[in-house]
From TrEMBL:
Binding locations of NAD(+): 54-73, 136-139, 245-247, 271-273, 289
Cofactor: Zn(2+)
PROSITE patterns xrefs: SIRTUIN
Catalytic activity: N(6)-malonyl-L-lysyl-[protein] + NAD(+) + H2O = 2''-O-malonyl-ADP-D-ribose + nicotinamide + L-lysyl-[protein]; N(6)-glutaryl-L-lysyl-[protein] + NAD(+) + H2O = 2''-O-glutaryl-ADP-D-ribose + nicotinamide + L-lysyl-[protein]; N(6)-succinyl-L-lysyl-[protein] + NAD(+) + H2O = 2''-O-succinyl-ADP-D-ribose + nicotinamide + L-lysyl-[protein]
Enzyme Commission identifier(s): 2.3.1.-
Domain of life (superkingdom): Eukaryota
UniProt entry keywords in alphabetical sequence: Cytoplasm, Metal-binding, Mitochondrion, NAD, Nucleus, Transferase, Transit peptide, Zinc
Domain notes per entry: In contrast to class I sirtuins, class III sirtuins have only weak deacetylase activity. Difference in substrate specificity is probably due to a larger hydrophobic pocket with 2 residues (Tyr-98 and Arg-101) that bind to malonylated and succinylated substrates and define the specificity.
UniProt: substrate binding residues: Y98, R101
All copies of domain Deacetylase sirtuin-type, residue ranges: 29-303
Name of the protein this chain belongs to: NAD-dependent protein deacylase sirtuin-5, mitochondrial
Annotated active site: H154 (proton acceptor)
C-alpha cells in the first residue's frame, strides 16, 4: 500500500524547504534513462497508468505557481496565505488572493500536456486500458482538457465550503461576490481591501449564510481521506506511473511515485529539472511537458 507510514496519523500537506528535504537514499544510484523508444515500448503494454501531475504542468498555461524566486502575491508567498490561521486572522486578504487566482484561471486554457493526457485516456479506455490523473493542482485544467478520471488531492479553486454548515459546492461566479470585484491585484504596493467579513462570499443555503472558504487543502490540513484512499488504490494497481511537472517536495504526494518505483513498477518523470526523487525513477524526460508528453503518449504502432 502507498504511504503506509501515514496510516496511523493525519496526512499533512507539508512543503519541505530545501535544507530539510528527505535524502531518499539515492547515493550511488544510476541516472534514469531518457530513451523514449524504451518508454514507449512499456507504455504500449501498460493496462493501468497513473499520472501524478503538479504545478509545472499548469505553469505552461501561464498559471502562477507562487513558488521559488519571485513567486509572491503582493509581499506574501502561498504558504503565508494558504493556511487556516491566515484565513482566521484576515479572511479578506485570503479571499483577495484566491479571487485573483480564480480570475486568472478564467483567462487560461489547457496546454498540449493537458490535452495529451486527456486524449490518451479517451483512446486507451476504448482498448480496456485505464488512465487516472492524480493531481496536486487546484485549477481544473485537466477537467477542461477533457480528462474524466481525476483525483484532486488539494481540492479546487472553483469549489467553496461553508464554515457554518460544511456544505461544499462548485462555484464559478466571476466575481465570486460583489465586494471582491476589481480586487486582488498582486502588485506589492497594492493595499489590502479590508472587506468586512459580512461582505465576503457567503453560503446560499436556506437559513445558513455562513462564511465560505475556498475548498482547497491548505498547508497543515489533512487530505480528504476518500481521495487519498482512491489514490492509494490507483497507485497500488498501476503498472506504469508518470510524474508530470511536480517538484516532489510537497508531502505526502512526493512519496507516491518513489514508493511505486520501489515495488518495481516503471516510473517516468517529465520535468524541466531534476527533483529530489529523480534518481528513483526508470525514466526522466527533460523539457517542457507540453513538448515531451505528446510525443510520449501518442498512439503506439501496436495499438488497434
Amino acid at each position: 500500500m502507498i504511504v503506509p507510514q501515514f496510516a496511523c496519523r493525519a496526512i499533512i500537506n507539508v512543503h519541505l524547504p530545501v535544507h530539510v528535504r528527505k535524502p531518499w537514499g539515492i547515493q550511488g544510484m544510476a541516472r534514469p534513462s531518457s530513451d523514449l523508444a524504451a518508454f514507449r515500448e512499456i507504455f504500449s503494454k501498460a493496462k493501468n497508468i497513473a499520472i501524478i501531475s503538479g504545478a509545472g504542468v499548469s505553469a505552461e498555461s501561464g498559471v502562477p505557481t507562487f513558488r521559488g524566486a519571485g513567486g509572491y502575491w503582493r509581499k506574501w508567498q502561498a504558504q503565508d496565505l494558504a493556511t487556516p490561521e491566515a484565513f482566521s486572522r484576515n479572511p479578506s486578504r485570503v479571499w483577495e488572493f484566491y479571487h485573483y487566482r480564480r480570475e486568472v484561471m478564467l483567462t487560461k486554457n489547457p496546454n498540449p500536456a493537458h490535452l495529451a493526457i486527456s486524449e490518451c485516456e479517451e483512446r486507451l479506455s476504448k482498448q480496456g486500458r485505464e488512465v487516472t490523473v492524480i493531481t496536486q493542482n487546484i485549477d481544473e485544467l485537466h477537467h477542461r482538457a477533457g480528462s474524466k478520471n481525476i483525483l484532486e488531492l488539494h481540492g479546487s479553486l472553483f469549489k467553496t465550503r461553508c464554515l457554518t454548515c460544511g456544505h461544499e459546492t462548485a462555484n464559478y461566479k466571476s466575481p465570486i461576490c460583489a465586494a471582491l470585484e476589481g480586487k486582488g491585484a498582486p502588485d506589492p504596493d497594492t493595499q489590502d481591501a479590508q472587506i468586512p467579513v459580512q461582505q465576503l462570499p457567503r453560503c446560499e443555503r436556506t437559513g445558513c449564510h455562513g462564511l465560505l472558504r475556498p475548498a482547497v487543502v491548505w498547508f497543515g490540513e489533512t487530505l480528504d481521506s476518500d481521495i487519498l484512499t482512491r489514490s492509494e488504490k490507483v497507485l497500488d494497481s498501476c503498472d506504469l506511473c508518470l510524474v508530470v511537472g511536480t517538484s516532489s517536495v510537497v508531502y505526502p504526494a512526493a512519496m507516491f511515485a518513489p514508493q511505486v518505483a520501489a515495488r518495481g513498477v516503471p516510473v517516468a518523470e517529465f520535468n524541466m529539472e531534476d527533483t529530489p526523487a529523480t534518481l528513483h525513477f526508470k525514466f526522466h524526460f527533460h523539457g517542457p511537458c507540453g513538448t515531451t508528453l505528446p510525443q510520449a503518449l501518442r498512439r503506439h504502432e501496436t495499438e488497434p
